[in-house]
Amino acid sequence: MEINVRGLKKYYQSEGKVIKALDDVDLTIEANKIFTLLGPSGCGKTTLLRCIVGLETPDEGEIQIGETIVWSKEKEIYVPPEKRQLGMVFQTYAIWPHMNVFNNVAYPLQNMKLPKEEIAVRVAKTLKFVQLEGFENRPSTRLSGGQQQRVALARALVAEPKVILFDEPLSNLDAKLREETRKELRQFLTELEITAVYVTHDRVEALALSDMIGVMNKGKIIELGTPRKIYFDADHQFVADFIGRSNLIPAKLLRQEKQHTIVDTPIGEIACHKRTFEKDDELVLCLRPEFINTEKPSDEHTNRVKGIIQHITFVGEVYEADVQIGEETVLVKLDPETTLVVGDELTLSMKPDHCLLVSR
Amino acid sequence: MEKRNARLTYSLIVIVSLLTVAPVIMLIIGSFSNSLHSFGNFTLKKYVAVYTDPMLIDILGNTAAFVLGSALFATVLAIFLAYLNNRTDIPFKFLFKVVSVMPMMIPHVLFGVSWALLLNPTNGILNMLLMRLFTLSKAPFNIYTIPGMIVVEGLLDLPVAYLIISPAMGSFDATLEESSRVFKAGPLKTFFRITLPVLRPAIMASFILCIVRALASFAVPSVLGMPGRIYVLSTFIYRVVSMSLIADYGKAAAIGMSILVISISLIYVYRYYTRASDKFVTVSSRGFKPTVVELRKGRIPLFIIVLFISALLILLPVLVLFYTSLIPYVMEPGIKAFKAMSWDNWRIVIKDPISVRSLKNSLFLGVVGATVGSFLSVLVAYVIVKAKTKAAGFLESISFLSFSFPGIVIGIGFMWYFVRTPLYGTIWALFFGYIATYLPYGIRPMTSAFIQIHGSLEESSLVCGASFATTLRRIVLPLLVPGMVSAWILLATMFFRELSISVVLSRPGTETLAVQILRFSEDGQWGKLSALGLIMIFVSTAMVLVVNALGAYFKPGEVREKKSVWTKGEAKLKAAV
Prior knowledge:
The structure holds 2 protein chains of 2 kinds.
Chain A lengths: L2 E12 L2 E13 L4 E5 L6 H9 L6 E6 L2 E5 L4 E2 L8 E3 L11 H11 L4 H14 L15 H13 L5 E5 L7 H17 L3 E6 L2 H7 L2 E6 L2 E6 L1 H6 L4 H7 L3 E10 L3 E6 L2 E6 L9 E5 L15 E12 L4 E7 L2 E7 L10 E6 L4 E5 L1
Parallel strand pairs in A: 3-9, 3-10, 7-8, 8-9
Antiparallel strand pairs in A: 1-2, 1-4, 4-5, 5-6, 10-11, 12-13, 12-15, 13-14, 15-20, 16-17, 16-19, 17-18
Chain B lengths: L1 H30 L13 H7 L4 H32 L7 H11 L2 H12 L5 H9 L12 H25 L3 H9 L4 H12 L1 H17 L2 H7 L7 H10 L6 H31 L19 H28 L8 H6 L3 H8 L1 H34 L3 H10 L7 H12 L8 H26 L2 H9 L4 H29 L5 H4 L7 H11 L2 H29 L10 H12 L1
Helix pairs in contact in B: 1-13, 1-17, 1-18, 1-19, 2-13, 3-7, 3-10, 4-7, 4-14, 4-26, 5-11, 5-14, 7-10, 7-11, 8-9, 10-13, 12-13, 13-19, 14-25, 16-25, 17-18, 17-20, 17-22, 17-24, 20-22, 21-22, 22-25, 24-25
């Protein structure tokens, strides 16, 4: 089911100041896709999710899930969370400690007043789906973090909702388990016909899981796009910076060429991915360390600059080097087998496609 | 939702204010009044009378010695026991649990009486035995002295001190000590230079709380102090209202005011130390085990000491009471005593109309009072935890006001209050007085129960399609049951043996068990006293067991961590502290 959010506002009062948790948010989430709300903590992403599920009431606007308007200020509609027929996985999992696995998972079906036999069949099926077969009678206090996470997922899926919401569900797992669970989750969700709304502040999680990402900051959705678009071709400095490590270098528009936009920067004249700007726009060049090469350039358009290594640190997969180019210091990733040391001069090359220009 | 919460908050503020703030205000006005009947006519006469009383110097000296001595005794003993339990390989560690739940089992007044039976100078059983054994002409011990009172009160406050110090000792980061050893300090030096200083906040908190409790203590000073004409502030009040020809409630209120001021300031210091103890990070999330000190040769002797202390705390009082309940008058154990044994005292007591009435009254106050008290506690705790408004914060502070109230002082406040209402002289005066004074003990376990119910547990139930009512029934209430059981048991046991408020408020017809036992003790009717005391211990234990079983039955289905009765009792007291 598609989710439509129109003109949503939610303000909080805190110590005399008004905090705009949601500042006029318009958003359409396509049906049967995995949509991620990504942003730093306090950006309003969880508030938006809680408004969709009905645990929080917005101040202004309208929320529509499928054909049903579940909340509208104007039309005075409020459908309580228990009537919205959604599934949700909480950050804390919210597994009820006084119930066993079966009762936790069966709870939504029990509330639908289904016959006992059917409940048993569907719970068994769902537990099998999340690979927790035979865990029915396990007290929920005797589950590991990963198992709790699966129980929470099973509970959210058991009633076969058309929409499922995730509130940072992986943040309580340790790094290795988080990676495994993320892959599984992607697999589970792809197998089902379901619209998933996923909230996270972890950019890797967002990139790996989503069909679409909405990046939020200060109560606004800054940018919408596929993971590749957000990563390679962000329109906003905030997005480019938030989604990965970036060297941000001030730039001035020189001229537009057929294929590239040429800018002047403290590290020299750089050919960039083509993009149109107003003449007076203040520009920033975003260079991701992973796209700065030391090998010989493959084509004539590639930018080449010379610099001196100021600092070099071995971090395992790569060497991270601070390279001074003119007045500017640029972070570069070097091959782990490099023999370069501090003080060495080197030539760096950057493909224009990876030189991203954004307006400030 | 928010509107409903606000309405609930304000009605609770009104109710709790009537219970806790009103008696304090009445106490203050009362201390400036002439008598119960000329309420509010301002006079300083009572303060002048109290502070020019020639006895006052002695009383203050006695109070200081009694209070500081017993607090020191309890705290040092608690450090010793907590260290042995947490940090050494002493055997049979379950004995330490006995130490911590003892006060739930034996009312203070009975504990005091049992020591009087053993060590009073005229016919103390132990004294008589020792006199014969060593052919002494004079009793070697006299419990009716300040040192005697200090030891008995110290033993009674030991559990409180232990429950504060032991967890701190248990979560102590042993690497702090290990590094001291590495830097060339011996084990003893390490204990005094590292262990004790790091634990200072817990130790200070325990010491201060013991002072507050000793200051409020009425049972020990009345049972052991008054026979030797040793008065402390609490018994001074008692003397003013019930042992002189004309009860002077104005003077009592004036004395009470000074105790109240000291007590509230001490609680303030106590809060300071318990807050500071958060800063001294001794608890770490790593699952470490503190290194265990091997006692080697000291293991068995130290164990015997612990065994001896546990016996002093539980076994001895019960045995002495049982023995005394069977003999017609106090005599030393032997063939003569054995021949004279009978159930006469028991028979007399269960036929004595006043004793039976006091049992009924206390049972009513225990059961009904605890039920109403826990219900009020649930509501107050709900508002404190879930509604984070300014009004809720205010409700919290007035609910915990009575934590620092000495029972006899607040009893005087209630006297000034209830005499102006139809409640005066009825069982309901006691009923409301109890609930007001012990409300914090009901709220504590409930707030921790509510805090454990993370908001998302309710929210996820709503998202799963459950209505508000279903959520309440299937999620919230089941998770609250353990907290409610704790609160109920704590309140019921405290109400059942309440002495210091009752001694002021009870009137002919509204006697309570503890008051009746005090009367027997004043009249020296030891046999009847013992029989009634044992009935009291028996009934209150039965009550605790029944409710525990009920709680386990209503706790829905699945197993949680199985806890023994001992740990439950300990947890309850911890909540109370």
